[in-house]
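Sharing a chain and its predicted structure for anyone who wants a worked example. Both blocks are below, sequence first, tokens second.
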Amino acid sequence: MLIKFESKSHRVKGLSFHPTRPWILASLHNGVIQLWDYRMCSLIERFDEHDGPVRGISFHSNQPLFVSGGDDYKIKVWNYKQKKCLFTLLGHLDYIRTTFFHHEYPWIISCSDDQTIRIWNWQSRTCICVLTGHNHYVMCAQFHPTEDLVASASLDQTIRIWDISGLRKK
């Protein structure tokens, strides 16, 4: 073990490393998001706008942003330099499990217990695609790092690969 520090709070539901700084985000069961400097073992900031557990958390690769999703059915986009939530995306009808930014396009992927995967344009703040087909909670969804593909995993005991090449035209 290299470093250990304690959140001094409720259960940790999600983690995300910053791509360049020695930071890690921890999303907590009590609705709080903590930003830590893991080299100094110090809490930098707390973000508290979700009602209930926050499960999905992810830094943007080159903007001062992160995205979160929680049991309040809300996806929130935050600016960590401004120390505030910029906006909220609404559309899921149940708990949100994971949230991630696309590596190139201004997109966010989210998945939910509502059995859907949604792709959002965070610049226009709109849902641009709803992927349906799972028949149980969708526990995880991610963009492929280089191709126009999405992978999702569900409690329906399936992993699905989705072709999203048509979205680039939208």
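Comments welcome. The radius of gyration is 16 Å.
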